[in-house]
């Protein structure tokens, strides 16, 4: 059986403090999700003796920049005339504070950035210099006999790169993010989270 876009689901979730981590399900109806399947590795350069390959030939490893550089992720979704659309817009705004009435708890929810909370190769990533920038987790999963999915740590939505497009059949929000954390494979969504809706 081929996995198809219609079987996919995308979730954003915050870092979660006080034992509660909130997630938002995004039905990306346009089926145009694009993202890397792994982080790049460092470059390897072959060193030879004056251009001659001999027993002294060896590789040297390049700098770590490609390993830690932000990676691009994009998707789009149709907006409905519900509170969900406002919440989606808030989450992709990329800045803090994000707080609004939580339908699930009848209180106010503030999303907590996960920037500086994850690692790549065992190295804890630093916080943004601009403390108002928010980063979240993103998981995407395609449901089939053997589910396949990806988790992106510390994704940031640059405010100037999000757009809304009007058409005869609806309003489409295009989300463009930068992944600062690791990219890992998953076979199911993270359990124990609380829906923000």
Helix run count: 2
Number of domains: 1
CATH architecture designation: Roll
- CA-based shape: globular
Given the helix and strand composition, which structural class is it? mainly beta
User: What is the average per-residue confidence, as pLDDT, rounded to a whole number?
Assistant: 85
Distance N to C terminus: 32 Å
Helix-strand sequence: EEEEHEHEEEEEEEEEE
CATH fold description: Pnp Oxidase, Chain A
Q: Over the alpha carbons, how many angstroms does the gyration radius reach?
A: 20 Å
Number of strands: 15
CATH class: Mainly Beta
Fold and architecture overview:
This protein has 197 residues and is mainly beta. It has one domain (5-40, 69-195): Pnp Oxidase, Chain A (Roll), CATH 2.30.110. The chain has two helices and 15 strands. It has helices at 65-68, 83-91, and strands at residues 8-13, 22-26, 44-47, 58-61, 71-79, 99-102, 107-110, 119-120, 123-124, 135-142, 148-156, 163-167, 170-179, 183-186, 194-195. Strands 1, 2, 5, 10, 11, 12, 13, 14 and 15 form a nine-stranded mixed β-sheet that branches. It has a two-stranded antiparallel ribbon with strand order 3-4. The chain has a two-stranded antiparallel ribbon with strand order 6-7. The longest helix is centred in the middle third of the chain and has 9 residues, at 83-91. The chain is globular, with a radius of gyration of 20 Å. The model is unreliable at 100-104 (pLDDT under 50).
């Amino acid at each position: 059986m081929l996995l198809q876009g219609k079987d996919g689901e995308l979730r954003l979730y915050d870092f979660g403090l006080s034992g509660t981590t909130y997630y938002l399900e995004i039905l990306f109806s346009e089926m145009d999700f694009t993202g890397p399947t792994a982080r790049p590795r460092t470059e390897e350069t072959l060193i030879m003796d004056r251009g001659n390959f001999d027993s002294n030939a060896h590789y040297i490893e390049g700098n770590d920049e490609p390993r830690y550089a932000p990676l691009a992720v994009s998707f789009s979704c149709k907006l409905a005339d519900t509170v969900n659309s406002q919440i989606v817009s808030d989450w992709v705004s990329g800045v803090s504070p994000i707080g609004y009435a939580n339908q699930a708890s009848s209180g106010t929810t503030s999303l907590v950035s996960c920037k500086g909370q994850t690692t790549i190769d065992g190295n804890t990533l630093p916080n943004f210099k601009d403390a108002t920038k928010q980063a979240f987790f993103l998981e995407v999963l395609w449901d089939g006999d053997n589910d396949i999915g990806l988790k992106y740590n510390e994704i940031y939505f640059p405010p100037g790169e999000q757009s809304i497009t009007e058409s005869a059949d609806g309003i489409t929000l295009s989300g463009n993010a930068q992944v600062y954390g690791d990219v890992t494979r998953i076979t199911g969504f993270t359990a124990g989270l609380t829906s923000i809706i």
